[in-house]
Design brief:
Layout (H helix, E strand, L loop, with lengths): L1 E3 L10 E2 L2 E2 L25 E3 L2 H11 L5 E4 L10 H4 L1 H11 L3 E6 L8 H10 L2 E7 L4 H7 L6 H13 L4 E5 L10 H13 L4 E3 L4 E3 L4 H12 L3 H9 L4 E3 L3 H14 L6 H9 L3 H19 L1
Parallel strand pairs: 1-4, 2-5, 5-6, 6-7, 7-8, 8-9
Antiparallel strand pairs: 3-4, 10-11
Helix pairs in contact: 1-3, 3-4, 7-10
């Protein structure tokens, strides 16, 4: 890992990445793509040393409260977070200044900060987003070697549900000829129902490949799935979007089951939900706290 001084931290959409690069080793990771202009090895994690200071400044300058997002390019709960605590510090600032938060992870380390999520959700809104690709823990170890196994991730979703913190699942990517099966989808959806997830993002069965992540993906296919790379090349060539032959059937199955169990399944609706800051709830809690403080001081 190495440290850098960042010029800014919050994007125009109020998202941020405290780290750059990743140690999870997921074989399909789009963040490896050359279009992102990363000038260091992907596993050599870049740490934005001044990110917490920049975040505090950015939140204080905000004219309106909003949802702050993390994890779009790098998992905020990589193992080094257990030592550095940048994500924890960021959540503390979000809580202190009355903002909402949502983040995407594949790690059970997020349970360390469950109390912070509860505090934020009690005042505004906190949403945990968890990526799930395969129900099979053994397959998970191959395609996502350094993350919490799927079973652990569902335990996390269960704990957050017990604390009434909403959760969203990213059911992707579904890798052609690897995990694009009805049994995999059905098992994942059954657990999502059991853990009462609020919504599931599903973009059809498939993945995207471009320069940078394509080469890494094919290297891992050679290591773990002999001869499968040739099938990919023959089927898809250099295509960016690689849809499974089973995509139509799996998508139909996904829509039927999620609709039946009242789980949000529309991507636009889910993204709007993640961005929506509950203004009325925030101001109600704010005035209640102000009233209590006044009574205490009388």
């Amino acid at each position: 890992m190495h440290y850098v001084q960042a010029k800014s931290i919050l994007s125009n959409n109020n998202g941020m990445n405290l780290y750059r690069g990743c140690s999870h080793g997921c074989i399909y990771c789009d963040s490896r793509s050359k279009c992102y202009n990363m000038n260091h090895d992907f596993e050599d994690i870049e740490i934005k040393e001044n990110s917490i200071k920049l975040l505090k400044q950015a939140l204080l300058k905000k004219k309106e409260k909003c949802m702050v997002g993390m994890g779009s390019m790098t998992d905020p709960y990589m193992p080094l977070e257990n030592k550095l605590n940048y994500t924890k510090f960021a959540l503390e600032l979000v809580d202190k200044y009355g903002f909402g938060c949502t983040l995407i992870t594949k790690s059970d380390l997020v349970l360390r900060d469950l109390d912070l999520f509860k505090k934020i959700n009690d005042k505004t809104k906190a949403v945990l987003q968890m990526t799930i690709t395969t129900f099979d823990d053994d397959l998970c170890k191959i395609i996502e070697p350094n993350v919490a196994p799927t079973s652990k991730r569902f335990e996390v979703l269960k704990r957050f549900n017990e604390e009434e913190i909403p959760t969203i699942v990213w059911l992707c990517p579904i890798l052609p000829f690897i995990n694009d099966t009805k049994s995999n989808l059905k098992n994942i959806l059954d657990k999502c129902i059991e853990t009462n997830v609020k919504g599931i993002l599903f973009f059809g069965a498939g993945l995207t490949l471009r320069e940078g992540n394509r080469e890494f993906f094919y290297k891992k296919l050679d290591e773990n799935f002999p001869r499968l790379k040739n099938r990919y090349i023959k089927t898809y060539g250099d295509s960016y979007s690689l849809q499974s032959p089973n995509s139509k059937e799996l998508t139909s199955m996904f829509r039927f089951i999620t609709k039946k169990h009242n789980i949000m399944n529309n991507t636009t609706e889910i993204f709007n939900y993640l961005k929506d800051f509950p203004q009325k709830r925030f101001y109600t809690v704010y005035f209640i706290l102000m009233y209590k403080n006044q009574n205490i001081n009388m």
